[in-house]
Predict the structure.
Amino acid sequence: MMERATSIDDRPDGRSECTGEVVVIGAGPAGCLAAIAAVKAGARVTLLERAGFPREKVCGCCIAPRGVAVLADMGLKHILADAPRLGSVRLESGRASARIDRDSGVALSRGAFDTRLVRAAMDRGVHVVHGTSAIVGIDGVVRARRDGIDMTLCPAACVVADGLAGRSLDAHPGVTWRVSPTSRIGLGAILPAGSIALHPGEVLMRVETGGYVGAVELEDGRIDVAAAADHDVLRHEGPAGLMARWLGDAVRDRDTIDAARWTGTPWLTRQRSTLAMPGILVAGDAAGYVEPFTGEGMSWALASGHAAGLMAARMVHEPSCWVQWPTQWADLLKSDRLRCSLVARLLRSPRTVHAGLAIARRWPGMAARLARPIGQMHRAATLCQEVSS
């Protein structure tokens, strides 16, 4: 087994400098894939995570075919062994409805998915440290804190994958978020099995004035409900009332909606002003996000995390190659994110939604062909990964 990186757990007081070749901040899908890819490329890796595991999250429970392919290429497809296959999308708006048959990937709870990814990272030699907050200084030094003890790591490369609400780049005054003026807020909850009417392998999407909501059955039968809503609409009705109205007659038990623990996100559609600096790469949701109607967000995190891990391993021996990261990130994701953003904008028009549903009902084959490319691995992404390796 590869020699383990010098880690913050190896020092009794945690106060001395600790040097690992690659440090990854955030043990979500992007961070875990970055850590695994970097180890596989020959680097020593320390992965820092603020939360304890297992943890449950309501966002990102659908993994599109592109994400499944990334996991398979890394020898991690077994993680999805019990994840239900998603073979259709039921799109509704008001009384209009259409069913689109397409490979939508799989569904897996974040509690299971993240925990399995962390275990896979540990099994491959990544040193994982939970309960640790971290700030990356302008000098590239990672200053971490765990159980009240301050620690310092001096990596050759650092991958920041701490999500939409991450604070690890706060010390960099030029690194800011550009938030879309039309951005919505995300919210969601995990409901008991049977609380929402769903067919096996189906994704339910309902588009309403002020946003949309999706529901899917997880591997243990529970129902993941996730939505994007305008701030004013959400503030006026509250999460439970809004979700009950949007889900409409699909709700089998209103009490489960009222009793659910609804959690929110920051503004969804956003972009980092900077994706790379000397010794630092930004990946996953920490790099940017788009209102996730097409269900591709998790695949973007996995793909960009994988590529960032390969780039970080290169930076150990080629420190200046960080300048390639913004171009590589754009090659991986830009076209898919633009398409997703366009779809989200079109869905804000009730006329467009109803026209699209009418076309899908009349020509289901055409609708399926148009929807098929969404979430698929494409040649540009494959080439980009080949270049990184």
User: Anything to note?
Assistant: Residues 190 and 224 are 5 Å apart (CA to CA). Residues 325-346 form the longest helix (22 residues). The radius of gyration is 21 Å. The chain has a mean pLDDT of 88.
